[in-house]
């Protein structure tokens, strides 16, 4: 993991906005196109910080073509736990 100086930390409101937009347009576009679809303007650098956070926390993946994919599914995880899924 790399350490980078962040000049402006995103607000919770910004993170939630990016999460919702990513869920809505999952598998449809890359970073720049997704940034353009945000309902409110945001600095691209701030957007990238949020995407890095979402990727590191396992909520998104970015495929080899640069397409942003929402992967977080808490309902599925809950069901797997109920079925006694063994994770090593």
Main features:
88 residues, mainly alpha, Arc Repressor Mutant, subunit A, two-stranded antiparallel sheet, 47% helix
Write the layout of secondary structure elements.
Layout: H1 12-24, H2 31-36, H3 44-56, E1 60-62, E2 68-70, H4 74-82
Helix pairs in contact: 1-3
Description:
The chain has 88 residues and is mostly helical. It has a single domain, classed as Arc Repressor Mutant, subunit A (Orthogonal Bundle), CATH 1.10.10. It has helices spanning 12-24, 31-36, 44-56, 74-82; strands at 60-62, 68-70. Strand 1 and strand 2 (68-70) form a beta hairpin. The chain is globular.
- What's the CATH topology name? Arc Repressor Mutant, subunit A
pLDDT < 50 stretches: none
Overall 3D shape: globular
Output the structural class.
mainly alpha
Residues in helices, as a percent range: 40-55%
**CATH architecture grouping:** Orthogonal Bundle
Question: What is this entry, summarized?
Answer:
A two-stranded antiparallel ribbon has the order 1-2. The chain starts with 11 loop residues before the first helix and ends in a 6-residue tail after the last helix.
